[in-house]
Amino acid sequence: MRTAAVSTRGRRSAAVIATLTLSVVVAACGASGDERQTAAAPSASQPAATTIDMVDLAFEPRALTVQRGQTVTFLNRGKVTHNAKGADFFSRVVEPGGSYRHTFKQAGTFRYVCTFHPGMDGTVTVK
Ligand SMILES: [Cu+2]
């Protein structure tokens, strides 16, 4: 994990570990994402479990499982621009507060990255 703030690296590392731990807990709960806020969700009909939050600098949850044909919304809750690029999709630029949707039509596990931030990545598993 790279960080520009070298002097606070220890503190940031602790925060990152806490974030990663939270992500694992969320992922372990499977489809449960109800406890998270959906303030900027573009559509009320979207189940919470199909939203991946883009925060600074991670995707949450980092690993998400969806059903084939389900649409995933990548929602930028961070303060800086992010994107999501997979093998067959690319959001280009997602500004803070913005979102991007992709429908996963094939089964498998698909890795994606934010091209702006090395190490900011995640996977969507489609069943
Ligand atoms: Cu990013």
Q: For the record, what is the CATH homologous superfamily label?
A: Cupredoxins -  blue copper proteins
Q: In the CATH classification, which architecture applies? A: Sandwich
| N to C succession of SSEs | HEEEEEEE
Overall strand count: 7
Overall structural domain count: 1
Largest sheet: 4 strands, mixed
Determine the structural class based on helices, strands and strand pairing: alpha/beta
Percent strand: 25-35%
Helix tally equals: 1
Q: Could you give a short description of this structure?
A:
With 127 residues, the chain is α/β, with parallel strands linked by helices. Helix content is 16%, strand content 28%. Copper (II) ion (CU) binds next to loops.
Describe this structure in words.
The structure is a single chain. This protein is an alpha/beta fold and 127 residues long. The protein has one domain (6-126): Immunoglobulin-like, CATH 2.60.40.420. It contains 1 helix and 7 strands. The strands form 2 sheets. Strands 2-1-4-5 form a 4-stranded mixed β-sheet, with no helix packed on it. It has a 3-stranded mixed β-sheet with strand order 3-7-6. Strand 1 (51-55) and strand 2 form a beta hairpin. It starts with 8 loop residues before the first helix and ends with a strand.
